[in-house]
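Researcher: Let's do a round of design. I'm pasting the structure tokens now; please hold your answer until I've finished.
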């Protein structure tokens, strides 16, 4: 992460993109292998030149392997649709190159909670 603060343009663009992505993904529930799930956009990060975009996502899927498969699918197969959506909804000179990244914060938090509970039982 860079030490430079984000410009107002970066912050506004990130916010617009996050709203567009949330609207896009909330229209219908996606499925993988018959298992329905929803997508949460946890964070959006755009480069200072507005040409590169990282979208951090999490899913309501319990299987971590399936989560990674969905991220791969988004990065490979749905990129054209997403770039077209961004071009239509957001007024930018260039449509940013977008990459989806699995946000594993919640999974790490749950593991830490389990470890804390396990360790606290030893002291009871």
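Researcher: That's everything. Go ahead.
Model: Designed sequence:
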């Amino acid at each position: 992460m860079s030490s430079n603060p984000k410009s107002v343009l970066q912050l506004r663009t990130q916010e617009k993109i996050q709203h567009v992505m949330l609207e896009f993904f909330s229209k219908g529930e996606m499925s993988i292998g018959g298992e329905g799930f929803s997508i949460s956009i946890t964070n959006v990060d755009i480069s200072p030149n507005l040409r590169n975009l990282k979208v951090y996502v999490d899913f309501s899927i319990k299987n971590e392997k399936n989560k990674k498969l969905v991220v791969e699918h988004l990065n490979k197969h749905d990129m054209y649709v997403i770039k077209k959506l961004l071009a239509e909804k957001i007024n930018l000179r260039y449509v940013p190159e977008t990459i989806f990244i699995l946000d594993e914060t919640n999974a790490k938090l749950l593991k830490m909670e389990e470890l804390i509970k396990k360790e606290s039982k030893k002291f009871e």
